[in-house]
Amino acid sequence: xxxxxxxxxxxxxxxxxxxxxxxxxxxxxxxxxxxxxxxxxxxxxxxxxxxxxxxxxxxxxxxxxxxxxxxxxxxxxxxxxxxxxxxxxxxxxxxxxxxxxxxxxxxxxxxxxx
Amino acid sequence: xxxxxxxxxxxxxxxxxxxxxxxxxxxxxxxxxxxxxxxxxxxxxxxxxxxxxxxxxxxxxxxxxxxxxxxxxxxxxxxxxxxxxxxxxxxxxxxxxxxxxxxxxxxxxxxxxxxxxx
Lengths: 114, 118
What we know:
- The complex is a heterodimer.
- Chain A is built from no helices and eleven strands.
- Chain A has strands at 4-7, 10-13, 19-25, 31-37, 43-51, 54-57, 65-66, 76-78, 87-94, 104-105, 109-113.
- Chain A is globular and about 40 Å long.
- Classes of the chains: A mainly beta, B mainly beta.
- The interface between A and B is medium-sized, with 29 and 31 residues.
C-alpha cells in the first residue's frame, strides 16, 4: 500500500531532551516536507526537501533540523525541544515539487513538550 | 511571498444543501496550483480537488467543485448535497512551479470548520 508513515504517533517529552520523529514514504517520491499544525494557524511548513541531500527552510524552521540521506526517509530532529514546539506534526511527500503534484500526508505525530 | 486567506473560521450547513468555502490567494507567479484538503476529527489530511493556474475549466470531483476566479485570485470550494460525513476542517493550499522562485514551498490557509446539521 502506498503510504507515508510517521513514528511515533504520540510523544510526551520534557524540555531539552533531544528527539527525532521519523518519516518514511514508499512511493519513490522526490519531494518531502514537514509541517506543524496549531489551532487557528493552519499548517505551517517547517522544512522541505526537493531531492536527496537537498533541504530548504520553510516558514518556521527555528528549533528544527532535518536530513535527507536517502529518498524514502526524512526525519525531523528537535535538538532541544521547548514547550512552544508542542504541536501536531505532519510529514508529506509528492512525486516532485511541481505545482500539479498533490501531497500525500502521514497520519501525524502529536508532540507535547513539558 | 505566497499567502492563502480563508475568512470563515466556521460554517454551518443543512444536510443535503450546498455550501461554499472561501479561499483567496496571493502570489506574484503565473504558474501555480491550488488544492483543497479535508481533515476530519480523526486528524488525517485527505486530498479533495486540484486547480491549475492555466486551467480554463473549473475543476470538479464528484460532489466537490472549485469556483476558480483568477482575476480575483479566489478558489472557492463548493460542496453539493452536503452529508453528515462532510463535517470536518477544510484547508486551501497553494504550490508554485518547480522552477519558480518559491519552488518547494507550500502554503496553507488557516482552515474552515464545516458542520453539517441533520
